[in-house]
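Kindly inspect this one:
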Amino acid sequence: MITLRQRIFIISSVVVLIILVIAILLLLNYRNKKAGLNGEGSTSTTETSLPPIGQQPTIIPEGIKPKVLTTLEAEKNAAKQIAKIFMERYGSYSTDNSFQNIREVQMLVSQNLWTKLSAMIKNSSNNQAFVGVTSKAAMSDIKEWGEDTAKISVGVSKEEKRADKITTYFETYTVGMVKENGSWLVDSFTKEQ
């Protein structure tokens, strides 16, 4: 006669054995599928390098070579990005945020431009109705390029909210850049006609 304790032990053992068999079958199935993806008839790929933890690896199909930027191209791209970031941050503001947009661009502008922008904070009065503007740089193009100066055209999409009215429009700016201490900074900006 089998005791209750023995029955529970036998049933528990059978359940654990079934779970173990299912796990092994799933593992073998996964390995077979993975081996099938890397087997014959598949496109071979080459990993470029190991990414930081949490990011997917970059896979480059065989035969395609990534474009390596020259130092000049990288520098031009950096100047264009700074111009775009400046126009987005400076152009996004609200009458309720106490010139936060101007404070956010301090590290992106030359001392010459910062003197002008910070004067706007000191000389302002905040007695106006609510206005909120969100800017998004849509494009940028280099108009002039020199060793220490550049002019970049930046197209900006803007959404303006006044009271209950929302207006969307597009403006283009010429952003003057200067190179100070090895870094490109915004020195001026004007709206194009």
